[in-house]
Design goal:
With 478 residues, this protein is an alpha/beta fold. The chain is built from 15 helices and 20 strands. Strands 7, 8, 9, 10, 11, 14, 15, 16 and 18 form a nine-stranded mixed β-sheet that branches. A six-stranded mixed β-sheet has the order 1-6-5-2-4-3, with helices on both faces. Strands 12-13-17 form a three-stranded mixed β-sheet, covered by helices on one side.
């Protein structure tokens, strides 16, 4: 997808964004009959109108001002998805946006929706060229978008496309080792440094969580460290991002059922995709922040030497854990990474993980479950960024009673709690391995779409990247 500013818009395939019905009179490309048609639609609260003018299309969107600005913003993104669908169906290669609205980010938001809905994963399709969307370029007249907005839009869309592709890749391509190579390649493209620990190094460090999960696999684990540090960062101590990198999860010996469960478990590294591609974006945007990202990666299989329910393992921190369910593996690899993060004395650690079915059951595919020990200002800022980007957050508590549920009779902890509160007991398990301000985002319900919905595709979604980037772009040290 290409974005550009043009000096003289074409006479066809234009989108006009207006604030009021009366603004139709300022659009010379519309006939009186077309303006009357638009007026009739607007009066019926149909604020987006598509006009087929035979030699091309003209689109008109009258901005619908909702009670909350983030709802108005989301309406623009959804309209962008509608325009993309029309463009693809009619083999339109370029749409030019001309915003007459006083809302300074209106063109940005509608283009964002168009671009997000235009993503395709066609690598393994023999009919890829036939299926490929015709829409290749979104153009703007020079009054509709700033150069900074254009640059940030381009980078954000690139990051989300990369994340979606990583999630969509199957295990027979994207092993833990290949994931580390993909991360290194993105680092070279955008400017962050990458260090990859192999199995021997992970063993030397005694990362017991990662090694236990990897025991059933014939493929080695990796632990990837990314770092972006500009010359004058505004944070004295780094922000650390942690992403769960389970490249495939069978459940191990606690085997998952295949229908509607194991068949999409290539997406269990979605947290790794979120933090990796956020690193790509923030380094390309040259944000004035020192940020480190950690990705512990392996697959989880029921191999001959696989760990079993009842095993007691020693984590990187020295904590002993009784494994009662080998399908609760994500928290084991994340715990090692969270303990590793202590060496940086971070001012904030943020993790993203497809951690629990309980989170998905609770909020479905329309939000992220979060919890943590960060201060209320940080939590409120994340929540506002979630609304801004329509990647909304629901905060769960970390009450002491949930910690009681993961106490073991035979070890320091057990890796699952009882039949209730599963998303929270998983978070409580992770909290044990932290001693810094920390936020946990469970993206199990939103990381992988079962069907296309507006600008959210089937397959990998990249959900959470825009929210995280919004937080980082506006980050101020308290």
């Amino acid at each position: 997808m290409q974005f550009k500013i043009i000096q003289k818009p074409s006479t066809k395939n234009n989108l006009f964004i207006i604030d009021t019905f009366d603004a139709l009179d300022t659009l010379p490309s519309l006939s009186a009959q077309e303006k009357a048609y638009c007026q009739s639609k607007f009066k019926k609260e149909q604020y987006f109108v598509s006009l087929n003018q035979y030699d091309g299309y003209t689109f008109v969107y009258c901005l619908k001002f909702e009670k909350q600005p983030w709802l108005s913003a989301e309406a623009l993104r959804k309209t962008g998805a509608e325009i993309q669908a029309i463009a693809a169906a009619n083999k339109i290669e370029q749409v030019t946006i001309q915003s007459l609205s006083a809302t300074t980010d209106a063109a940005y938001l509608i283009a964002e929706g168009m671009a997000l809905s235009n993503y395709q994963f066609l690598k393994y399709r023999s009919d890829a060229e036939k299926k490929r969307s015709s829409l290749q370029t979104i153009a703007f007249d020079k009054k509709s978008i700033t150069n900074l907005q254009l640059s940030q839009l381009t980078t954000t869309i690139e990051a989300i496309y990369y994340a979606r592709t990583l999630v969509n890749e199957p295990l027979n391509y994207l092993s833990a080792e290949q994931l580390s190579k993909e991360i290194s390649a993105l680092g070279k493209k955008s400017g962050f440094k990458t260090t990859v620990l192999n199995k021997a190094q992970i063993t030397k460090e005694k990362m017991g969580g990662i090694l236990a999960v990897n025991r059933g696999s014939q493929q080695p684990p990796t632990f990837t460290i990314m770092e972006y540090k500009p010359a004058k960062p505004i944070n004295k101590k780094p922000i650390v991002l942690v992403g769960k990198g389970i490249v495939y999860d069978t459940g191990g010996l606690s085997l998952k059922p295949t229908p509607a469960s194991m068949d999409r478990m290539k997406s269990d590294m979605s947290g790794a995709a979120v933090v990796t591609c956020s690193m790509y974006a923030l380094s390309k945007m040259k944000l004035p922040l020192h940020v480190i990202a950690l990705v512990p990666a392996t697959d989880n299989r029921p191999g001959e030497n696989a760990y079993v329910p009842g095993d007691i393992i020693t984590m990187y921190s020295g904590t002993s854990v009784e494994v009662l369910n080998t399908d609760a593996e994500g928290r084991l690899v994340l715990a090692d990474a969270l303990h590793w993060a202590k060496r940086y004395q971070p001012e904030l650690v943020v993790d993203f993980a497809t951690l629990t079915g309980a989170a998905s059951v609770a909020v479905g595919d329309v939000g992220i479950v979060c919890m943590g020990t960060a201060d209320e200002v940080t939590k409120d800022t994340f929540k506002q960024c979630g609304f801004n980007q329509y990647e909304r957050l629901v905060e769960y508590p970390l009450w002491d009673e949930y910690g009681e549920m993961i106490k073991s009779d035979f070890a320091d902890l057990k890796n699952v709690g009882g039949p209730s509160g599963g998303a929270i007991t998983a978070g409580k398990f992770l909290e044990h391995f932290t001693d810094y301000p920390w936020m946990h985002f469970d993206i199990a319900g939103v990381s992988f779409g079962l069907s296309k919905k507006g600008y959210i595709p089937s397959g990998g979604t990249g959900y959470g990247i825009r929210m995280l980037l919004d937080f980082l772009k506006n980050y101020k040290k308290n």
